[in-house]
Recover the amino acids of this structure.
Protein backbone atom coordinates (compact mmCIF):
# COMPACT_ATOMS: atom_id res chain seq x y z
CA UNK A 1 0.00 0.00 0.00
CA UNK A 2 2.72 2.40 1.02
CA UNK A 3 4.83 1.66 -2.04
CA UNK A 4 1.80 2.14 -4.28
CA UNK A 5 1.23 5.61 -2.84
CA UNK A 6 4.91 6.39 -3.24
CA UNK A 7 4.75 5.25 -6.86
CA UNK A 8 1.77 7.48 -7.48
CA UNK A 9 3.53 10.47 -5.96
CA UNK A 10 6.64 9.76 -8.02
CA UNK A 11 4.52 9.51 -11.20
CA UNK A 12 2.78 12.78 -10.42
CA UNK A 13 6.16 14.43 -9.88
CA UNK A 14 7.35 13.15 -13.25
CA UNK A 15 4.22 14.54 -14.94
CA UNK A 16 4.78 17.87 -13.18
CA UNK A 17 8.42 17.91 -14.26
CA UNK A 18 7.42 17.22 -17.84
CA UNK A 19 4.82 19.98 -17.76
CA UNK A 20 7.42 22.43 -16.49
CA UNK A 21 9.84 21.26 -19.14
CA UNK A 22 7.23 21.85 -21.88
CA UNK A 23 6.25 25.24 -20.57
CA UNK A 24 9.82 26.43 -20.10
CA UNK A 25 10.90 28.86 -22.82
CA UNK A 26 13.04 26.97 -25.26
CA UNK A 27 16.60 28.10 -25.63
CA UNK A 28 17.31 25.96 -28.69
CA UNK A 29 15.35 28.27 -30.99
CA UNK A 30 14.80 31.97 -30.63
CA UNK A 31 11.20 31.64 -31.78
CA UNK A 32 9.26 29.27 -29.55
CA UNK A 33 6.39 29.29 -32.10
CA UNK A 34 8.75 27.45 -34.40
CA UNK A 35 9.59 24.73 -31.91
CA UNK A 36 8.79 21.15 -32.84
CA UNK A 37 6.68 19.53 -30.15
CA UNK A 38 5.24 16.04 -29.77
CA UNK A 39 1.63 16.10 -30.95
CA UNK A 40 0.48 13.72 -28.22
CA UNK A 41 -0.77 14.97 -25.82
CA UNK A 42 -0.60 18.73 -26.63
CA UNK A 43 -2.22 18.78 -30.06
CA UNK A 44 -4.66 15.98 -29.27
CA UNK A 45 -5.64 17.68 -26.03
CA UNK A 46 -6.52 20.85 -27.94
CA UNK A 47 -8.71 18.87 -30.34
CA UNK A 48 -10.35 17.09 -27.43
CA UNK A 49 -11.18 20.39 -25.69
CA UNK A 50 -12.63 21.79 -28.94
CA UNK A 51 -14.80 18.68 -29.38
CA UNK A 52 -16.04 18.81 -25.79
CA UNK A 53 -16.82 22.52 -26.07
CA UNK A 54 -18.77 21.92 -29.29
CA UNK A 55 -20.70 19.04 -27.70
CA UNK A 56 -21.66 21.15 -24.69
CA UNK A 57 -22.68 24.00 -27.00
CA UNK A 58 -24.85 21.68 -29.14
CA UNK A 59 -26.55 20.04 -26.15
CA UNK A 60 -27.33 23.38 -24.49
CA UNK A 61 -28.66 24.88 -27.72
CA UNK A 62 -30.71 21.74 -28.40
CA UNK A 63 -32.29 21.83 -24.95
CA UNK A 64 -33.50 25.41 -25.35
CA UNK A 65 -34.04 25.76 -29.11
CA UNK A 66 -36.59 23.52 -30.80
CA UNK A 67 -35.92 22.50 -34.40
CA UNK A 68 -38.81 23.80 -36.52
CA UNK A 69 -41.58 21.37 -37.45
CA UNK A 70 -44.56 22.92 -39.23
CA UNK A 71 -47.77 21.21 -40.29
CA UNK A 72 -47.65 18.06 -42.43
CA UNK A 73 -46.55 18.55 -46.04
CA UNK A 74 -49.48 19.52 -48.24
CA UNK A 75 -48.81 19.78 -51.98
CA UNK A 76 -52.13 21.62 -52.34
CA UNK A 77 -51.21 24.56 -50.10
CA UNK A 78 -48.22 26.63 -51.18
CA UNK A 79 -46.92 28.92 -48.44
CA UNK A 80 -46.18 32.41 -49.67
CA UNK A 81 -43.33 33.13 -49.77
CA UNK A 82 -41.76 29.70 -50.39
CA UNK A 83 -38.15 29.86 -49.40
CA UNK A 84 -35.19 27.52 -49.93
CA UNK A 85 -32.95 26.57 -46.94
CA UNK A 86 -30.99 29.62 -45.76
CA UNK A 87 -27.70 28.62 -47.43
CA UNK A 88 -29.49 28.59 -50.82
CA UNK A 89 -31.32 31.88 -50.21
CA UNK A 90 -28.49 33.80 -51.88
CA UNK A 91 -29.19 31.81 -55.05
CA UNK A 92 -32.93 32.34 -54.71
CA UNK A 93 -32.28 36.07 -54.28
CA UNK A 94 -30.25 36.07 -57.51
CA UNK A 95 -33.03 34.12 -59.24
CA UNK A 96 -35.50 36.85 -58.33
CA UNK A 97 -33.27 39.46 -60.01
CA UNK A 98 -31.66 37.80 -63.02
CA UNK A 99 -32.78 35.44 -65.82
CA UNK A 100 -33.00 31.87 -64.44
CA UNK A 101 -30.42 30.39 -66.81
CA UNK A 102 -27.88 32.93 -65.59
CA UNK A 103 -28.74 33.02 -61.87
CA UNK A 104 -29.73 29.38 -61.34
CA UNK A 105 -27.19 27.55 -63.51
CA UNK A 106 -24.44 29.64 -65.10
CA UNK A 107 -23.57 31.67 -62.02
CA UNK A 108 -23.28 28.83 -59.43
CA UNK A 109 -21.36 26.64 -61.90
CA UNK A 110 -19.02 29.54 -62.61
CA UNK A 111 -18.43 30.14 -58.88
CA UNK A 112 -17.69 26.47 -58.13
CA UNK A 113 -15.27 26.12 -61.06
CA UNK A 114 -13.63 29.42 -60.13
CA UNK A 115 -13.21 28.25 -56.53
CA UNK A 116 -11.48 25.04 -57.60
CA UNK A 117 -9.22 27.02 -59.97
CA UNK A 118 -8.27 29.68 -57.39
CA UNK A 119 -4.84 28.11 -56.56
CA UNK A 120 -3.93 28.13 -60.26
CA UNK A 121 -5.24 31.63 -60.99
CA UNK A 122 -3.52 33.24 -58.01
CA UNK A 123 0.05 33.57 -59.36
CA UNK A 124 1.31 35.39 -56.27
CA UNK A 125 3.58 32.99 -54.31
CA UNK A 126 3.45 35.02 -51.07
CA UNK A 127 1.24 33.99 -48.18
CA UNK A 128 1.67 37.23 -46.23
CA UNK A 129 -1.60 39.18 -45.97
CA UNK A 130 0.28 42.44 -46.57
CA UNK A 131 1.52 41.11 -49.92
CA UNK A 132 -1.79 39.75 -51.19
CA UNK A 133 -4.07 42.73 -50.81
CA UNK A 134 -5.88 42.16 -54.11
CA UNK A 135 -6.71 38.51 -53.36
CA UNK A 136 -7.93 39.34 -49.86
CA UNK A 137 -10.04 42.30 -51.00
CA UNK A 138 -11.65 40.21 -53.78
CA UNK A 139 -12.37 37.37 -51.36
CA UNK A 140 -13.78 39.71 -48.70
CA UNK A 141 -16.01 41.23 -51.37
CA UNK A 142 -17.22 37.77 -52.41
CA UNK A 143 -17.95 36.79 -48.78
CA UNK A 144 -19.73 40.10 -48.13
CA UNK A 145 -21.95 39.64 -51.21
CA UNK A 146 -22.86 36.06 -50.23
CA UNK A 147 -23.66 37.04 -46.63
CA UNK A 148 -25.66 40.09 -47.77
CA UNK A 149 -27.72 38.01 -50.24
CA UNK A 150 -28.46 35.37 -47.58
CA UNK A 151 -29.51 38.04 -45.06
CA UNK A 152 -31.72 39.77 -47.63
CA UNK A 153 -33.31 36.46 -48.66
CA UNK A 154 -33.93 35.42 -45.06
CA UNK A 155 -35.16 38.62 -43.47
CA UNK A 156 -36.17 41.10 -46.17
CA UNK A 157 -38.22 39.02 -48.57
CA UNK A 158 -41.92 38.70 -47.84
CA UNK A 159 -45.10 37.83 -49.72
CA UNK A 160 -44.39 36.97 -53.39
CA UNK A 161 -40.67 37.35 -52.48
CA UNK A 162 -41.16 41.12 -52.62
CA UNK A 163 -38.95 43.39 -50.50
CA UNK A 164 -40.40 43.55 -46.98
CA UNK A 165 -39.31 45.59 -43.95
CA UNK A 166 -41.53 43.47 -41.70
CA UNK A 167 -38.66 41.82 -39.89
CA UNK A 168 -37.09 45.18 -39.06
CA UNK A 169 -40.44 46.58 -37.96
CA UNK A 170 -40.97 43.66 -35.59
CA UNK A 171 -43.51 41.79 -37.70
CA UNK A 172 -41.79 38.62 -38.91
CA UNK A 173 -44.46 37.72 -41.45
CA UNK A 174 -41.88 37.27 -44.16
CA UNK A 175 -40.29 34.25 -42.53
CA UNK A 176 -43.04 32.01 -43.90
CA UNK A 177 -40.86 29.55 -45.76
CA UNK A 178 -37.49 29.93 -44.08
CA UNK A 179 -36.05 28.53 -40.90
CA UNK A 180 -35.98 31.61 -38.74
CA UNK B 1 -6.86 -15.48 3.81
CA UNK B 2 -3.79 -16.25 1.79
CA UNK B 3 -5.95 -17.80 -0.97
CA UNK B 4 -8.09 -14.66 -1.20
CA UNK B 5 -4.99 -12.46 -1.25
CA UNK B 6 -3.56 -14.59 -4.07
CA UNK B 7 -6.81 -14.41 -6.08
CA UNK B 8 -6.97 -10.61 -5.70
CA UNK B 9 -3.34 -10.24 -6.81
CA UNK B 10 -4.04 -12.47 -9.81
CA UNK B 11 -7.08 -10.37 -10.74
CA UNK B 12 -5.02 -7.19 -10.52
CA UNK B 13 -2.39 -8.68 -12.77
CA UNK B 14 -5.04 -9.79 -15.33
CA UNK B 15 -6.56 -6.32 -15.30
CA UNK B 16 -3.13 -4.82 -15.73
CA UNK B 17 -2.52 -7.11 -18.70
CA UNK B 18 -5.88 -6.10 -20.20
CA UNK B 19 -5.03 -2.42 -19.84
CA UNK B 20 -1.61 -2.80 -21.40
CA UNK B 21 -3.13 -4.91 -24.22
CA UNK B 22 -5.36 -1.97 -25.18
CA UNK B 23 -3.04 0.92 -24.28
CA UNK B 24 0.42 -0.24 -25.26
CA UNK B 25 2.20 2.68 -23.66
CA UNK B 26 1.91 4.28 -20.27
CA UNK B 27 1.54 7.96 -19.55
CA UNK B 28 3.47 10.06 -22.09
CA UNK B 29 6.12 11.02 -19.57
CA UNK B 30 8.93 11.29 -22.10
CA UNK B 31 8.86 12.54 -25.69
CA UNK B 32 9.81 9.07 -26.85
CA UNK B 33 6.79 7.41 -25.22
CA UNK B 34 4.54 10.22 -26.46
CA UNK B 35 5.82 9.80 -30.01
CA UNK B 36 5.40 6.02 -29.91
CA UNK B 37 1.87 6.39 -28.52
CA UNK B 38 0.82 8.68 -31.37
CA UNK B 39 2.48 6.44 -33.93
CA UNK B 40 1.05 3.10 -32.81
CA UNK B 41 -2.43 4.15 -31.71
CA UNK B 42 -5.12 3.68 -34.37
CA UNK B 43 -7.14 6.71 -33.31
CA UNK B 44 -4.11 8.94 -33.03
CA UNK B 45 -2.12 7.77 -36.07
CA UNK B 46 -3.94 10.32 -38.23
CA UNK B 47 -1.82 12.97 -36.50
CA UNK B 48 1.82 13.62 -37.23
CA UNK B 49 4.08 12.53 -34.36
CA UNK B 50 5.70 15.96 -34.15
CA UNK B 51 4.21 19.32 -35.01
CA UNK B 52 5.53 22.82 -34.99
CA UNK B 53 3.85 24.88 -32.31
CA UNK B 54 2.80 27.49 -34.89
CA UNK B 55 0.93 24.84 -36.95
CA UNK B 56 -1.53 24.09 -34.19
CA UNK B 57 -1.87 27.61 -32.79
CA UNK B 58 -5.57 28.08 -32.09
CA UNK B 59 -5.51 31.63 -33.47
CA UNK B 60 -4.26 30.20 -36.77
CA UNK B 61 -6.57 27.22 -37.42
CA UNK B 62 -9.47 28.33 -35.19
CA UNK B 63 -10.11 24.55 -35.00
CA UNK B 64 -12.49 24.93 -37.94
CA UNK B 65 -11.44 21.88 -39.97
CA UNK B 66 -11.39 19.63 -36.93
CA UNK B 67 -14.74 20.95 -35.74
CA UNK B 68 -16.26 20.30 -39.17
CA UNK B 69 -15.12 16.68 -38.97
CA UNK B 70 -16.33 16.39 -35.39
CA UNK B 71 -19.75 17.73 -36.41
CA UNK B 72 -19.82 15.10 -39.17
CA UNK B 73 -19.32 12.45 -36.46
CA UNK B 74 -22.02 14.01 -34.25
CA UNK B 75 -24.37 14.00 -37.24
CA UNK B 76 -23.59 10.36 -37.99
CA UNK B 77 -24.29 9.26 -34.42
CA UNK B 78 -27.46 11.32 -33.92
CA UNK B 79 -28.55 10.37 -37.45
CA UNK B 80 -28.31 6.65 -36.60
CA UNK B 81 -30.58 7.20 -33.60
CA UNK B 82 -33.12 9.03 -35.75
CA UNK B 83 -33.02 6.23 -38.35
CA UNK B 84 -34.31 3.73 -35.76
CA UNK B 85 -37.59 5.62 -35.61
CA UNK B 86 -37.98 7.13 -39.07
CA UNK B 87 -39.65 5.52 -42.11
CA UNK B 88 -39.09 7.42 -45.39
CA UNK B 89 -42.62 7.22 -46.73
CA UNK B 90 -45.16 10.02 -47.01
CA UNK B 91 -47.59 7.95 -44.91
CA UNK B 92 -45.17 7.61 -41.99
CA UNK B 93 -42.49 10.31 -42.12
CA UNK B 94 -44.39 13.17 -40.52
CA UNK B 95 -45.97 11.01 -37.82
CA UNK B 96 -42.52 9.58 -37.04
CA UNK B 97 -41.24 13.13 -36.59
CA UNK B 98 -44.07 13.87 -34.13
CA UNK B 99 -43.24 10.65 -32.26
CA UNK B 100 -39.56 11.58 -32.16
CA UNK B 101 -40.50 14.94 -30.71
CA UNK B 102 -43.06 13.81 -28.14
CA UNK B 103 -42.81 10.04 -27.52
CA UNK B 104 -39.30 8.70 -28.12
CA UNK B 105 -36.88 8.96 -25.17
CA UNK B 106 -34.47 11.84 -25.92
CA UNK B 107 -36.00 11.92 -29.43
CA UNK B 108 -36.55 15.67 -29.36
CA UNK B 109 -33.06 16.38 -28.02
CA UNK B 110 -31.37 14.14 -30.58
CA UNK B 111 -33.41 15.63 -33.44
CA UNK B 112 -32.57 19.16 -32.27
CA UNK B 113 -28.89 18.23 -32.03
CA UNK B 114 -28.97 16.76 -35.53
CA UNK B 115 -30.63 19.88 -36.89
CA UNK B 116 -28.39 22.45 -35.20
CA UNK B 117 -25.22 20.42 -35.84
CA UNK B 118 -26.15 20.40 -39.54
CA UNK B 119 -26.50 24.19 -39.60
CA UNK B 120 -23.28 24.51 -37.57
CA UNK B 121 -21.43 22.27 -40.02
CA UNK B 122 -22.44 24.42 -43.01
CA UNK B 123 -21.04 27.41 -41.09
CA UNK B 124 -17.80 25.76 -39.87
CA UNK B 125 -17.00 24.30 -43.32
CA UNK B 126 -17.64 27.71 -44.88
CA UNK B 127 -15.46 29.49 -42.31
CA UNK B 128 -12.76 26.82 -42.69
CA UNK B 129 -12.66 27.67 -46.38
CA UNK B 130 -12.39 31.38 -45.53
CA UNK B 131 -9.53 30.72 -43.10
CA UNK B 132 -7.64 28.64 -45.67
CA UNK B 133 -8.10 31.37 -48.26
CA UNK B 134 -7.05 34.22 -45.97
CA UNK B 135 -3.88 32.41 -44.87
CA UNK B 136 -3.07 31.54 -48.50
CA UNK B 137 -2.86 27.88 -47.54
CA UNK B 138 -4.20 26.71 -50.91
CA UNK B 139 -0.95 27.65 -52.61
CA UNK B 140 1.56 25.12 -53.87
CA UNK B 141 1.69 22.22 -52.93
CA UNK B 142 -1.90 22.26 -51.62
CA UNK B 143 -3.81 23.19 -54.80
CA UNK B 144 -5.36 19.73 -55.10
CA UNK B 145 -6.51 19.61 -51.47
CA UNK B 146 -8.23 22.98 -51.89
CA UNK B 147 -10.23 21.40 -54.76
CA UNK B 148 -11.12 18.39 -52.59
CA UNK B 149 -12.21 20.84 -49.91
CA UNK B 150 -14.45 22.66 -52.37
CA UNK B 151 -16.14 19.35 -53.20
CA UNK B 152 -16.54 18.65 -49.47
CA UNK B 153 -18.28 22.01 -49.08
CA UNK B 154 -20.66 21.01 -51.88
CA UNK B 155 -21.29 17.61 -50.25
CA UNK B 156 -22.04 19.38 -46.96
CA UNK B 157 -24.61 21.62 -48.66
CA UNK B 158 -26.19 18.66 -50.49
CA UNK B 159 -26.35 16.61 -47.26
CA UNK B 160 -28.07 19.49 -45.53
CA UNK B 161 -30.42 20.01 -48.46
CA UNK B 162 -31.44 16.33 -48.74
CA UNK B 163 -32.01 16.22 -44.98
CA UNK B 164 -34.27 19.24 -45.24
CA UNK B 165 -36.99 17.20 -46.98
CA UNK B 166 -37.11 14.29 -44.55
CA UNK B 167 -39.40 15.76 -41.81
CA UNK B 168 -42.05 16.02 -44.52
CA UNK B 169 -43.61 19.20 -43.18
CA UNK B 170 -44.67 22.34 -45.06
CA UNK B 171 -41.18 23.80 -44.57
CA UNK B 172 -39.36 20.85 -46.15
CA UNK B 173 -41.59 20.12 -49.12
CA UNK B 174 -41.69 23.72 -50.35
CA UNK B 175 -38.02 24.45 -49.66
CA UNK B 176 -37.12 21.40 -51.75
CA UNK B 177 -39.64 22.40 -54.44
CA UNK B 178 -37.97 25.81 -54.70
CA UNK B 179 -34.48 24.24 -54.58
CA UNK B 180 -35.10 21.63 -57.24
CA UNK B 181 -36.88 24.18 -59.46
CA UNK B 182 -33.51 25.92 -59.82
CA UNK B 183 -32.12 22.81 -61.54
CA UNK B 184 -34.89 23.05 -64.14
CA UNK B 185 -33.28 26.08 -65.78
CA UNK B 186 -30.12 24.33 -66.99
CA UNK B 187 -30.08 24.09 -70.78
CA UNK B 188 -31.15 20.70 -72.20
CA UNK B 189 -30.21 18.66 -69.08
CA UNK B 190 -32.28 20.82 -66.69
CA UNK B 191 -35.71 19.15 -66.84
CA UNK B 192 -34.10 15.68 -66.86
CA UNK B 193 -31.95 16.54 -63.85
CA UNK B 194 -35.00 17.71 -61.96
CA UNK B 195 -36.92 14.55 -62.92
CA UNK B 196 -33.97 12.45 -61.75
CA UNK B 197 -33.86 14.24 -58.39
CA UNK B 198 -37.60 14.10 -57.78
CA UNK B 199 -38.33 10.68 -59.28
CA UNK B 200 -41.33 12.36 -60.91
CA UNK B 201 -42.67 15.78 -61.80
CA UNK B 202 -43.44 16.92 -58.26
CA UNK B 203 -42.06 16.33 -54.77
CA UNK B 204 -43.68 13.06 -53.63
CA UNK B 205 -43.11 9.57 -52.23
CA UNK B 206 -40.36 8.76 -54.75
CA UNK B 207 -38.57 12.04 -53.93
CA UNK B 208 -38.67 11.30 -50.21
CA UNK B 209 -37.09 7.87 -50.75
CA UNK B 210 -34.44 9.25 -53.10
CA UNK B 211 -33.50 12.08 -50.76
CA UNK B 212 -33.44 9.65 -47.82
CA UNK B 213 -31.12 7.18 -49.58
CA UNK B 214 -28.80 9.98 -50.70
CA UNK B 215 -28.89 11.54 -47.23
CA UNK B 216 -28.08 8.43 -45.20
CA UNK B 217 -25.92 6.40 -47.61
CA UNK B 218 -24.90 8.03 -50.90
CA UNK B 219 -23.63 11.44 -49.84
CA UNK B 220 -22.07 10.39 -46.49
CA UNK B 221 -20.14 7.67 -48.37
CA UNK B 222 -18.81 10.10 -50.98
CA UNK B 223 -18.14 12.63 -48.23
CA UNK B 224 -16.27 10.07 -46.15
CA UNK B 225 -14.04 9.05 -49.07
CA UNK B 226 -13.29 12.69 -49.88
CA UNK B 227 -12.49 13.31 -46.20
CA UNK B 228 -10.04 10.39 -46.19
CA UNK B 229 -8.28 11.91 -49.22
CA UNK B 230 -8.46 15.40 -47.66
CA UNK B 231 -6.86 14.34 -44.36
CA UNK B 232 -4.30 12.13 -46.08
CA UNK B 233 -3.29 15.06 -48.27
CA UNK B 234 -3.02 17.37 -45.25
CA UNK B 235 -0.42 14.95 -43.87
CA UNK B 236 1.40 14.41 -47.16
CA UNK B 237 1.46 18.07 -48.22
CA UNK B 238 2.33 19.14 -44.67
CA UNK B 239 0.48 21.48 -42.35
CA UNK B 240 0.41 24.98 -43.77
CA UNK B 241 1.52 26.48 -40.44
CA UNK B 242 2.18 30.07 -39.50
CA UNK B 243 2.64 32.83 -42.03
Amino acid sequence: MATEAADRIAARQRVEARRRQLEAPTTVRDDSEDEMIVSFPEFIFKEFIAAVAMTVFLVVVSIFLQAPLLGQANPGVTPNPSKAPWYFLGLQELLSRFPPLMAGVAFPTFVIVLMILVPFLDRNPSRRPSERKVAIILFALYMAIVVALVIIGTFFRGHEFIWDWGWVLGNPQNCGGAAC
Amino acid sequence: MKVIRGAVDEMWSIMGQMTSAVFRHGLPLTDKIAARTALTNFVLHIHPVRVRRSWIRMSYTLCLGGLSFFLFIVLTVTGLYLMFYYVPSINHAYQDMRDLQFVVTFGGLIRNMHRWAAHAMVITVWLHMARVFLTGSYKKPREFNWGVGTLLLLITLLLSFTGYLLPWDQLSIWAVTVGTNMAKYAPIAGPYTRYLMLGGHAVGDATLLRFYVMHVVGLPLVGFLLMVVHFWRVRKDGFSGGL
